[in-house]
Amino acid sequence: MKPKFGEHLFQTVLIIIISLLCISTIYPFIHVASVSLSSPSEAGRFGFHLYPKEIDFFAWKQVLSQTKIWIGFGNSVFRTVVGTFLTLIAMSLCAYPLSRKYLPHRSFYTMIILFTMFFGGGTIPTFLLIKELNLMDSVWVYIVPGLVPTFSMLVLRNFFMAIPAELEESAKIDGANDIRILFGIILPLSKPVLATLALWSAVGHWNSWFDAVLYITDADKQVLQFFLREIVITNTDAETFGRTVVGNFKYGPSIKAATIIFAALPILIVYPILQKYFVKGTMIGSLKG
C-alpha cells in the first residue's frame, strides 16, 4: 500500500522542522567555536561566524595560561566525579528500600520525599543551614546539600520496582542480606538507568555556579563555571567603563568564546559515551509508579 499524499506532506514538514531545530541547536556552538579560533579583530566582527577566516590560537593560549582557569577546572572535575559517584550511592540506598513492598509506611516516606520537589525553604534559610553545618568555604558544600536529587531517586526507585522480586527471594534463600542483594544483583541489572542518572548528575554538577557564588569566598575552591561567569561579566564591565584589561588578561570576544568551549568540552566528550543508555534508562525508569 502506497503512502498517501497527506502522509508524505506530514513527513516532509516534520523533516523540515527537525532540521531547523538541529540547525538552531548546532549553529551557536559552531559560531562560538569559530570565534574562539579567530584573531581578536576577526572575532569582534559583527555577523555570522561559520568558520574562522584565519585560524589564530591567541585566545586559547590566553585561556590555557590562566592559573585560575585550571584551578576552577580541577575543582569542577572533583565536584563532578565525586559528587556523581556519591549521589548514585546515596540514591541507591534510598531508592532500594522504598521500592520494596514490605517496607512499613513506604507510601508515607515516598510522599514526604516527593513533597521536597515542590516546596523548599528558600535561599536565606538554606544559607543559614549551610552556615550552621560548617560547610561554608568547603568543597563539600558542592556535594552534600544536593546529594539525593528527588526526581532522579524516584526514577531509580521505579526501575528497582520493575526488577522481578523472585531474584531477591532466591538470593535471600542462599543467605544474602539486603546490602549484598543491592550491590550484587540489583545495581548490576540497573546499568542503563544508573548511566542515565549519572549523566544528569554530572551535567548538573559541571554547570552549577550559583552555590559557588553564595557559599565560597576562597578563590582556590571556586569552580570553572564561576570563572566563566566572571569573565563574561568583566567583559561587559570593560566595554561599559572602557577598561579593556584586567590585570594582564584581555577579556575580548575570542577569549570569552574560548573559555565557553573549554568549559563545555568535558560534557561533550562524556555525553556520546552514555547516550546509548539515555533513552532506555529514562523509559524503563518511568514505567512503573
UniProtKB/TrEMBL annotation:
Location relative to the cell: Cell membrane
Membrane topology qualifier: Multi-pass membrane protein
Primary localization: membrane
Pfam families per UniProt: BPD_transp_1
Signal sequence segment: none
One annotated Gene Ontology cellular component of this protein: plasma membrane
InterPro entries xref list: MetI-like, MetI-like_sf
Sequence similarity: Belongs to the binding-protein-dependent transport system permease family.
UniProt protein name: Carbohydrate ABC transporter permease
Native species: Paenibacillus soyae
